[in-house]
Amino acid sequence: MSQLAEGSVVSGEVVAIKPFGAFVKLETGETGLVHISQISSKFVEKVEDELSVGSAIKAKVLSIDPSGKISLSIKALTDDRPQRSGGGGGGRGGRRGGGDRRGGPGDFEDMMKKWMKSSEERLSALAAKQKKGR
Question: What's its job (predicted)?
């Protein structure tokens, strides 16, 4: 049985599908989870839309926690390609369809927090303006 390491690419077979992701039996005999957010760069509404039991997959090992839970990502194998080193192509001009986004779930959460704060500030200002007008 080989030793898994974070960052390594592994092969396996989907053995179970749940609403939150797919369990994959690895060639090492261990089982890992591909969370629904790690299946594809595009939005995945249902795991079954992308994977099925018996599917052979390749995934990147994201983490192995102390209890032995293995977190896998299919998306990480495709997300690694578009990131280029060096200059050129930066900025928003060349994007189509938002497929070249950088960053992970943390970026989305930060964006949502900023939006919520801005929205609350606007609602407060509107309420104050309406109260003042009465």
Answer: Binds mRNA; thus facilitating recognition of the initiation point. It is needed to translate mRNA with a short Shine-Dalgarno (SD) purine-rich sequence.
